[in-house]
Specification:
The complex is a heterodimer. By secondary structure, chain A is an alpha/beta fold. Chain A has 24 helices and 23 strands. Chain A has 4 domains: about 230 residues, Thiamin diphosphate (ThDP)-binding fold, Pyr/PP domains (Rossmann fold), CATH 3.40.50; about 120 residues, 3-Layer(aba) Sandwich (Rossmann fold); about 170 residues, Rossmann fold (3-Layer(aba) Sandwich), CATH 3.40.50; about 55 residues, Alpha-Beta Plaits, CATH 3.30.70. In chain B, helix 2 packs parallel to helix 4. The N and C termini of chain B lie far apart (about 35 Å). The chains are: A alpha/beta, B alpha/beta. Chains A and B meet through helix 9, strand 8, helix 12, helix 15 and strand 21 of A and helix 1, strand 2, helix 2 and helix 3 of B.
Chain lengths: ~625, ~200
């Protein structure tokens, strides 16, 4: 049994937890049975924590192939009577939208909570979509924690509600909430909830058109029940100042934190009434109407899209209120993240008062930057170097989502466009057909299983013309080395089955499939040269374990490092074309930092005269 | 148990991916929690760890926002001097800076494409904002303690010993004993002593 406080901490204990860890504790306190996920920043620590805790026979966790599958597994588990949790990042919910929109119709008796971790500010994402939209669109209740304690408490409440209503419930965090660390006071950890035995009822669970129409109506009634629950939810709180005021603020999500600090900063706590919405969908509109009636002026604060603002505006209109409403404007927009400073400025203007002095020192943009980069010894660098040698600027490079997207940086420049997870092969297929250009697509092993396989099947079926390079580093590297079917069987253990990428590719009907070791630059170049001269769907599988994964999990390190033995144009060409982060300049000379060098020896192949291997 | 007189302090941490900035942040936050202070920390994971800049915050005394904007930090803890310089705008005028003086050149500097700002310039810029500042030879002291990695503990020890936080060196010592794996404790306790001595010198 784990001695981790998440699994053995008693009621009343207080621990410093990451927001995502607090969600784990909340789910355990609720009595969760089944967790499925596809990893994605900033959601990954939730499933990873469940995975490393092991379960202690309380729950089962799986890394699913993609978010759609994860949600279907969780929905099926909840149909089978289990309390299930499915976790993903915001864009993952786009992938999982299909099962979500229908499972709200059928309902899920066991109870399913959907964690979506949004990323305003695009810390590690391709967009900043606001998934509160999905709560409205698909029709499911939504909780938005703003502290570690709330992350735990709201998770537990989300499960309670999911089971009471037999409906999916959304738990929506943002990067800052998932990745804050705060004290959490534990409640008791009961045994997992009893499972709800499945009762056959095709008139509910098989949404053929006639059923679906009836269930849509039922869903409306269920959401009305949820709305009444929201009216009295302890997560929706009113803060009244000592002396009465007719100025009100309605606030939700992480903006609640910025507001609290902004009120302290400005010394304005006694000037406004605040209605905080932690259970932010469905809206407690009676409570909102009462609040609006008692205010002359109301400011709506929410990070992201102006959803709450639009709904409150509609309420003002519906009830014919004279409340003067303000929300987003040029200074507090729907772009990027809020901050205390931004909210202070907005409040000062809205309160028609002077703004406390705020910093005007700008960040110095001239300083040398530290853009994220492929690690020293990353096998992707070797493959990208080879692709540059073979295709140069003649090919168009279709990229995908993973560490290897970083191939966009010079000097490798092997990413010309990117749509979403799995799009490298399918978008590349479309591009090639439309442009008649040579397209080289890159995809990682986890992304291949996520949604690259369908694109490849389509490419074969529709006779597209594309070279797909599968960068198989044997793990889900970007998000922290989570298991995927491409991982070695001995790494996966008894709970998973390894799947062979080459066998899958060939079974799909790809005739031209070559497998190489990524560090063997000559064989990669040779394979690319040969595949370049052919047409149709061609696949190159470049294998080499992620260098971090090899070091940390496989305990494999090279006994050798590279060193520069001959300065001059060849060494400099290697620096210019490979740009390994282990290289550094000493005046006119090139050197290798042995503490960074992984011993991949790709530089020795690129510039054999300039480098040689030596003992570490 | 929270002290009613909780001092409101906001600390901004900055460093380079792989340095252990987040581990140091968590250790200091745990120290604060153990000391009965109201604490909140915030960090960002993901892309930043691929050799990029890693920023985190620790807030004491009841602040709720897990992110700091420019000019909000009372204390800036820099684990690398260029990153300290870059993060200076986050410090309020008159705040305190404690930074490692050990350079980790970014790739563009290693490759000779851009110059690294020289230390006198970094100190001059720091002086413009900070009421007090110290640049600490963390790597050297860490190596003296037994591992370069424990240089982070040297920096934490210096900031705790300075009295700028409501967290003393004794509280940090207790947290090291409570939260670090046994095999790392001796080195980090030595690093703590060296940091304290360095400041007293």
């Amino acid at each position: 049994m784990s001695d981790n406080p998440l699994l053995c901490g008693a009621r009343g204990e207080r621990h410093l937890l990451l927001g995502n860890e607090a969600i784990v504790r909340g789910a355990l306190e609720a009595g969760v049975h089944m967790i499925s996920c596809y990893p994605g920043t900033p959601s990954s620590e939730v499933p990873d924590t469940f995975y490393h805790l092991g379960g202690d026979n309380r729950y089962r966790i799986e890394y699913s192939i993609n978010e759609k599958v994860a949600m279907e597994v969780a929905a099926g588990a909840a149909l089978g009577g289990a309390m299930s949790l499915v976790t993903m990042k915001h864009v993952g919910l786009n992938v999982a939208a299909d099962p979500l929109f229908t499972s709200v119709y059928t309902g899920l008796p066991g109870g399913m909570v959907v964690l979506t971790a949004d990323d305003p500010g695009c810390h590690s994402s391709q967009n900043e979509q606001d998934n509160r939209n999905y709560a409205r669109f698909a029709m499911l209740p939504c909780f938005e924690p703003a502290s570690a304690q709330e992350a735990k408490d709201m998770t537990r409440e989300a499960f309670r509600l999911a089971r009471e209503l037999q409906q999916p419930v959304m738990l929506r965090t943002t990067t800052r909430v998932s990745h804050l660390r705060g004290p959490v006071t534990f409640d008791s950890l009961p045994v997992p909830q009893p499972k709800i035995p499945f009762t056959r009822d095709p008139g509910r669970f098989v949404p053929v058109p006639a059923v679906a129409l009836r269930r849509h109506e039922a869903l409306r009634d269920i959401m009305e029940r949820a709305r009444r629950i929201a009216e009295d939810s302890p997560f929706n709180t009113l803060h009244e100042p000592q002396s009465p005021t007719r100025l009100g603020i309605i606030v939700s999500g992480v903006a609640r934190d910025y507001l609290a600090d902004a009120l302290v900063t400005g010394g304005w706590e006694e000037r406004v009434r605040v209605l905080e919405l932690g259970m932010s969908w469905p809206l407690p509109y009676e409570r909102l109407a009462t609040f609006l009636r008692s205010c002359e002026r109301v400011l709506v604060l929410e990070e992201g899209a102006p959803l709450l603002e639009q709904d409150v505006r509609a309420l003002v209109q519906r009830y014919g209120l004279s409340t003067k409403l303000e929300g987003k404007n040029d200074s507090l927009t729907e772009l990027a993240e809020y901050s205390t400073t931004l909210v202070v400025r907005r409040l000062a203007a809205w309160l028609e008062t002077s703004c406390p002095p705020l910093s005007t020192r700008p960040v110095n943009k001239e300083l040398p930057g530290r853009p994220p980069n492929l690690c020293p010894g990353c096998s992707h660098r070797a493959v990208y170097y080879a692709a540059r040698q073979v295709f140069g600027d003649d090919a168009v490079y279709s990229s995908d989502i993973g560490c290897y997207t970083l191939g966009l940086l010079p000097p490798l420049r092997t990413a010309d466009f990117l749509v979403c997870m799995g799009s490298s092969v399918s978008a590349g297929s479309g591009f090639a057909r439309a442009s008649n250009k040579q397209v080289v697509a890159f995809i990682g092993d986890s992304t291949f299983f996520h949604s690259g396989m369908t694109g490849l099947a389509n490419a074969v079926f529709n006779k597209h013309d594309i070279l797909l390079v599968i960068l198989d580093n044997g793990t889900t590297a970007m998000t922290g080395h989570q298991p995927n079917p491409g991982m070695l069987q001995e790494q996966l253990g008894a709970g998973n089955t390894h799947m062979d990428i080459e066998a899958i590719v060939r079974a799909m009907g790809v005739q031209e499939c070559v497998k190489v070791h990524a560090y063997n630059v000559r064989s990669v170049i040779k394979a690319m040269d040969s595949l370049k001269s052919k047409t149709g769907v061609r696949v190159l599988i470049a294998e080499e374990p992620c260098v971090l994964y090899a070091r940390r999990q496989l305990k494999k390190t090279s006994p050798q490092v590279a060193e520069v033995v001959q300065q001059g144009p060849e060494a400099m060409r290697c620096l210019e074309q490979l740009a390994c982060p282990a290289f550094y300049r000493e005046g006119e000379n090139l050197a290798v930092d042995p503490s960074l060098c992984s011993g991949c020896m790709v530089c020795l192949q690129v510039a054999p005269k300039a480098f040689k291997a030596r003992k570490r | 148990m929270e002290k009613a007189q909780d001092k409101r302090v906001r600390v901004f941490f900055t460093g380079v991916g792989g340095q252990g900035t987040l581990t140091a942040t968590t250790l200091l936050a745990r120290t604060a929690l153990d000391a009965g202070l109201t604490v909140l920390a915030g960090e960002v994971h993901g892309m930043a760890q691929r050799g990029g800049v890693v920023e985190s915050v620790m807030l004491l005394g009841g602040w709720r926002s897990p992110k700091l904007d420019l000019g909000e930090a009372d204390v800036l803890l820099g684990f690398e001097p260029l990153e300290t310089l870059r993060a200076l705008p986050y410090l309020r005028q008159g705040g305190a800076v404690f930074s490692s003086s050990d350079v980790l050149p970014p790739l563009s500097v290693s490759l000779g494409k851009t110059p690294y700002p020289d230390m006198p310039h970094i100190e001059e810029e720091t002086k413009q904002v900070a009421g007090q500042y110290r640049f600490v030879p963390c790597r050297e002291l860490g190596a003296q303690a037994g591992s370069v990695q424990s240089g982070n503990t040297v920096l934490l020890s210096v900031v705790c010993a300075s009295g700028i936080l409501p967290i003393g060196v004794d509280a940090l010592e207790a947290a090291i004993k409570r939260h670090l794996p046994p095999k790392l404790q001796a080195v980090n306790l030595k690093a703590l002593e060296l940091g304290k001595e360095w400041l007293a010198r």
